[in-house]
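Response to reviewer comment R2.3. The reviewers asked that we include at least one raw input/output pair. We reproduce the pair for Fatty acid desaturase domain-containing protein here without editing.
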Amino acid sequence: MNTLSAKQNIQAIVKAIKTEEALLRQKHPLLAHQNTLGLIILLLSLSALIGVGVLYYLTIIPAWMCIILAAIAASISHELEHDLIHKQYFSNQPLMHNFMMLTVWLMRPNTISPWYRRKMHLHHHKTSGTQQDLEERLVGNGIKNPFLRALVITDGLLGLVISQKRFKKEIDGFSFMSVFNAGFPIATAYFIILYSVIVFHIVNLFMPLSINSASWLLSTINVFEFLMVVLIVPNIIRSSSLNFVTSSMHYYGGVNNMLEQTHVLTSRLFMPFHLFCFNFGHTHTIHHFVPNQPFYLRQMLSKKALKVMKQHNVRFNDFESIKNANLYNH
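Raw output as returned:
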């Protein structure tokens, strides 16, 4: 049985992760070109997203295939945004860095600005597992009611509206308008398109429009429906999968140190969700111990890192916590 203190266990995990990173960098010199690798991955994922949209437009692939492939491409852009928040690419070249930040936001239009999220995410690392962790609470962490939790996970805007009074009371410095405005203009356009299509089809169900009397409206809706297939529905799937995984693996309450902030999700039950969030639950705990690593490096060293983490009291697949609104039960 491990009798080390929490501090000793954390130090052992951090040392093991950094040692494995050093070995990988020594073995693969290409890893030294971090800026170039990040940019190449971004351009490839962006090309894939545009490519499947073109294939759908040309009716070469069906809508369901476009949605799945676009969601996978968008999930890569989330990992890149996460890295960019920690300034892993072009940190000394603002033009390239901000170009990448804008591009990953355009690929994931249902999120707040990555520049605003940087502040929120760095705060998450300081306050993970507590009432003050706004980033995780926005995606359902700590919510016991399964219906409310599902709503927050799938629709961030409704979740923010529903939770604003509780957040105002419990989170220092919380401002509904600050978070809401952080989505302008890209997330704003996303929700306008999403709800316009929903409202149109509900109204049209009871009051059908003639083609002649509303041709401009139908033309607009056709464009919106194309965007629904190539960008909006894929991002609903991507973000819902990510939100479900991240809010399941982060603890809320009972957290005293880094060992207790997260557990690792390796269960096959999460495989469908991991497909659309780039194996997030399998590797994100590594990030809590060593934040300044590109996402692909975490994937490469995860096998050895997870073995060490298990030896040093990091929990795996703690489903009891999920049932108890993410409480860390000592």
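The CA atoms of residues 214 and 220 lie 10 Å apart. The chain has a mean pLDDT of 95. Further pairs are available on request from the corresponding author.
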